[in-house]
């Protein structure tokens, strides 16, 4: 049985062969990190999850800064041990404050109990309490299960695409491909998000365009002899995303077939996803 979990920059998804050994999510305490030792644990977990070189790790100082300036460093703890975290930093868009969720990581043995989603919901609750309307993050559009989680389980939409955002990284998860990213917009109090989180159902819509990612993409990325196939999909989909977003379409849904192939479902958004006139400055 496959399981999904967010574990990375824009949240990389890992598949596991079994969920039987996963610790219960209810036994985990989710709370703010505020000690240097806890920030150090976040750095070590980051190293474990992505396999970055030291030069590409987000350092302890950045976690401290995020904590001090109105961002979020939310940890998941099993006893005293950090087993997951979410890092966000404040940003400003057109004069409006928002939170950019830069990184979410979950320790491998804890990836089968919905802990990544719990961390996202903890981010949302805390952000709403402080008056934020929007949280954004980036994710790799080739990551099928992660896209499903972001769009179908959290209610994020996508209207922007960033080409090779971080350059070529040392992480083996990226397989040497350009770090193209979709920008997820999570309008925290929108009708779309509230309905989805309360009922498990999203607003129905008629897709005007579909962009597909083959289930074999993971195999192609991990096999150097077949990596060009993954690159071809990435380049073709990049062009489709940029064209669709240029025409005002947005990713509003995501589907997966029996073989695991994923499809982004795009249409014109009928709900207005924008800052309210009375947006409070945090």
Number of discrete domains: 2
Please give the share of residues in helix.
25-40%
Q: How far is the first residue's CA from the last residue's CA?
A: 43 Å
How many helices in DSSP terms? 7
Q: Roughly what is the average pLDDT, rounded to an integer?
A: 88
Describe this structure in words.
The structure is a single chain. By secondary structure, this protein is an alpha+beta fold. It folds into 2 domains: 120 residues, Gcn5-related N-acetyltransferase (GNAT) (Aminopeptidase, 3-Layer(aba) Sandwich); 145 residues, no CATH class. The strands form 2 sheets. A 7-stranded mixed β-sheet has the order 1-2-3-4-5-7-6, sandwiched between helices. Strands 8-10-9 form a 3-stranded antiparallel β-sheet, with helices on one face. Helix 1 packs across helix 2. The longest helix has 20 residues. The chain starts with 28 loop residues before the first strand and ends in a 15-residue tail after the last strand.
